[in-house]
Amino acid sequence: MSQSGHASTIAVPPERNLLKIFLIALKLGLTSFGGPVAHLGYFHEEYVRRRKWIDERSYADLVALCQFLPGPASSQVGIGIGVLRGGLLGGIAAWLGFTLPSAAALALFAMAMQGSGIPSAGWLHGLKLVAVAIVAHAIWSMGTKLAPDRWRATIAVAAAAAVLLWQTALAQVLVIAAAGCAGIWLYKHKDMPKPEHIHVPISRRTAMICLSLFVVLLAALPLLRQAGIGGWFMALFDSMYRAGSLVFGGGHVVLPLLEREFVPTGWLDKADFFAGYGATQAVPGPLFTFAAYIGAAAHGWLGAIVATIAIFLPAFLLIVGALPFWSALRVNSRAQGALFGVNAAVVGILIAALYTPLWTSTVQAPADFALAAALFVLLTHWRTPPWAVVIVGVLGGTLLEWM
């Protein structure tokens, strides 16, 4: 599909706009508590509602695309928005801004506090309740638009039930695929509204290079490691790259995989590993930055940098490789029907995530429910900025601890 001659295309911005992409992503990286599902709520508020960098339906389609791809879905959504706004450099700026705060914090924690756990504290509990409110707000906002009729509402509820009853990464992939097939069948005779054109400032040639590089690295890195090339650098890069390439379902799923990769092999003992896991839950930003903790614990700052780049590289290559083809698929009538179904399933997956692990592990008492409800009202009706809601949640969680 030609990428010239469209009045509504977005040109690659100058350097000051790349800096703006970085600074907005940095703000999100500093304030986005609650894990990957909550991040989608923060992104929706910042990029769709406030800045209107991407329209509601395009955002939902991008979320659906990233749900299909292995790796950290929320980070891929952020990278994708950065690419749409500023090309490859915009994608790098968005990833760096969103990732840097938690990666740096976890690397510092690894070097300063190895072997110590993170105690259960009121402020941390408050952050978890903020996450409950953020996810509920995302469901409220996205559900009214993406599941407005009885068939899509049914798909959403069925997807939620399936993911809750069959809690594996494969289940999520199969649910999304089934919802796409259902959407094609249910909406095959429906006149689809033409989506707003989104210019992707990436050529298909560049996309194919990225997809090819993803496959080549996945095959070559284990061979180079086995041959003894690169020492600890290659071993760390290979382990993290494979983790980022083969995990569906986001950060929570990658943690047990990393445990099997690094604890039995002697890179970390179990106590240090779970200390890092506790710290990862307490910092904002993507859960994949747990890699920075592992890298720093093993090889200092250089290890943290290598591990962080390696675990996120597959996500970057895949989203850049997929975006040019995604843009063409969105204007295909059958693909639009599939996206109707997939977007409804994404709402269902959000509902499932709201229930477990967020609700079941966080809302343990009537006071927890009251604080979560108050935070939800602040977001939905008072239009309170997410960073202010985080502060209220921290103060409220601390107060609950004293009660």
Description:
Belongs to the chromate ion transporter (CHR) (TC 2.A.51) family. GO terms for molecular function: chromate transmembrane transporter activity. This is Chromate efflux transporter. It comes from Paenibacillus agilis. Keywords: Cell membrane, Membrane, Transmembrane, Transmembrane helix. With 403 residues, the chain is mostly helical. The protein has one domain (11-191, 202-403). It is built from 15 helices and no strands. It has helices at 15-31, 36-50, 56-68, 73-112, 122-146, 150-165, 169-186, 204-226, 231-246, 251-262, 270-282, 290-329, 333-362, 366-380, 386-402. Helix 1 (15-31) crosses helix 4. The longest helix has 40 residues, at 73-112. The radius of gyration is 21 Å and the shape is globular.
Describe this protein with a few key phrases.
Chromate efflux transporter, Chr_Tranpt_l_chain, single chain, 77% helix, 15 helices, globular, cell membrane, disordered N terminus, 403 residues, 0% strand, mainly alpha
Residues in helix, %: over 70%
Count of helices?
Answer: 15
- As a whole number of angstroms, the C-alpha radius of gyration is 21 Å
The total tally of domains equals 1
Task: Identify low-pLDDT runs.
Answer: 1-13
Membrane topology: Multi-pass membrane protein
Organism: Paenibacillus agilis
Transmembrane segments: 21-43, 92-111, 123-143, 155-187, 208-234, 271-295, 301-326, 338-358, 370-400
Protein name: Chromate efflux transporter
Chain-wise SSE layout:
Layout: H1 15-31, H2 36-50, H3 56-68, H4 73-112, H5 122-146, H6 150-165, H7 169-186, H8 204-226, H9 231-246, H10 251-262, H11 270-282, H12 290-329, H13 333-362, H14 366-380, H15 386-402
Helix pairs in contact: 1-4, 2-4, 2-5, 3-4, 3-13, 4-11, 4-12, 5-13, 5-14, 5-15, 6-7, 6-13, 7-13, 8-9, 8-12, 9-10, 9-12, 11-12, 14-15
